[in-house]
Amino acid sequence: MKLVIAYDHTALEMKAKIAAYLITREIEVLDICADTGVGMEYPIAGYKAATLVASGQADGAVLICGTGVGISLAANKVRGIRACVCSEPYSARMSRAHNDSNVIVFGARVVGIEMAKAIVDAWLDTPFEGDRHAHRVALINQIDETGALES
Questions:
Q1: Rounded to an integer, what distance in angstroms lies between the CA atom of residue 51 and that of residue 79?
Q2: 128: exposed, middle or buried (C-beta count within 10 Å: 0-12, 13-18, 19+)?
Q3: Distances in whole angstroms, Cα of residue 91 to Cα of each of 31, 98, 122, 126
Q4: How far apart are CA 40 and CA 27, in angstroms?
Q5: Per-residue DSSP letter, 110
Q6: Mean pLDDT in the chain?
Q7: What is the mean pLDDT of residues 80-93?
Q8: What is the mean pLDDT of residues 87-92?
Q9: What does pTM read for this prediction?
């Protein structure tokens, strides 16, 4: 599995710890902000990571900014992205099981490192349930592709 990791200046310390943690889980990590040394502005980081996921160059992404909100808003503007901001593992689990999220997001100023790891674990370890949820994800995809929802 290959995950993109992207972040802004508020998340440098957390990014390093989460990237190292992902590697212990035998996940390939593509750090798209590494050459900046300080992260990127969150709209740029969110967009760049999301485009790699949407194009199939990565299986998913972990995004981190101060609250997680700004970077998720940017990521969700990319067609095919379902980025969910989570502050605890239950939401992360449900974002995968019911919404087939392909990007997990959290805030470096909101959660500590151990909670961030628990969020990542819940997200990675939960498969999409499909079934009745597949129809709902298809509706989200319809909005994404057409800008409308046909009834």
A1: 8
A2: middle
A3: 25, 10, 9, 11
A4: 23
A5: T
A6: 96
A7: 98
A8: 98
A9: 0.96
- Mean pLDDT of the 99-122 span: 98
Under DSSP, the state recorded for 28 is E
Exposed e or buried b per residue across 80-91, where buried means at least 16 C-beta atoms within 10 angstroms of its C-beta: ebbbbbbbebeb
Dist. CA 110–CA 47, nearest whole Å: 22
- What positions carry a catalytic annotation? 65, 98
Q: Which residue type does 136 have?
A: R
- C-alpha dist (Å) from residue 21 to 2, 16, 47, 120: 14, 9, 23, 9
What contacts 24+ positions apart, CB below 8 Å, involve 82-87? Answer: 82/137, 82/140, 83/46, 83/50, 86/119, 86/123, 87/111, 87/115, 87/119
pLDDT bracket for residue 151 (50, 70, 90)? low
Neighbours of 134 (CB within 10 A): 12
In single-letter form, the type of residue at position 31 comes to D
Q: How far apart are CA 86 and CA 105, in angstroms?
A: 6
DSSP label at residue 129: -
| 7/14 Cα distance (integer angstroms) | 9
Token representation of residue 79: 């067609």
